[in-house]
């Protein structure tokens, strides 16, 4: 990978993020690529040893699943550590931006447990996707008539470097960090004195989802849920959201204080309603 492309990729990885989140995404990205790199090496060894029949997608899928399964725990550790880091970062960002008097390193246990469950699920889904993408890639490369040496070179350079450890790893690192960071900010708003509500703020730059643009300016009481694309969300990047509302989300929630609301607005929020500004 040339240096110019690598530098551009790093910029895309952290574009529009606060500095604390930038560092967290980069750490996640590095740890994640390190965790899946042994899968690459074991797969190349298996192809060269003849343990993979490139003419049979079921054979490829079985072998890749076996290899990837050996590293399940390593990938899950990365997911867990990355989201815990993101939770603390979110609380830190909220405290800095809005002068909230909170302990940013004291993430509520219920939120830690939620993202621990998410890490387990995300690991399984990530390795399933890696298995399927790899199997289809190797089968297609075989149909091109590539030799074993050519196939392993493609697996190394194009599949892992170009796909799994480039754009897919960037998307995973950014989505997981932003999601957990937003959850951390949400817990900071819950803990802070004077914060009674949250407002959804979308990045209205022409690249936003229509559903997230529609949610921009929506205000809900802390503890209530936003309505986004027909789904309920406690905060942007809520892991319970459908993937089409979650992946690469760049929205944030900002705190709303009591003195920013009229009595009628406050009463509406207190009764479970939503405001739109």
How would you describe what is shown here?
The protein is of the alpha+beta class and 277 residues long. The chain folds into two domains: 3-190, no CATH class; 195-276, no CATH class. It is 65% helix and 9% strand. The chain has nine helices and six strands. The protein has helices at 3-14, 19-49, 57-69, 72-98, 109-143, 148-191, 210-215, 243-246, 263-270; strands at 195-201, 218-221, 226-228, 231-233, 252-257, 275-276. The strands form two sheets. A four-stranded antiparallel sheet has the order 5-1-2-6. A two-stranded antiparallel ribbon has the order 3-4. Strand 3 and strand 4 (231-233) form a beta hairpin. Helix 2 packs antiparallel against helix 6. The chain is elongated, with a radius of gyration of 22 Å. The N and C termini lie far apart (46 Å). Mean pLDDT is 90; it is low at 1-14. Residues 140-253 form the Phage head morphogenesis domain. This is Head morphogenesis protein. InterPro entries: Phage_head_morphogenesis_dom. It holds the Pfam family Phage_Mu_F.
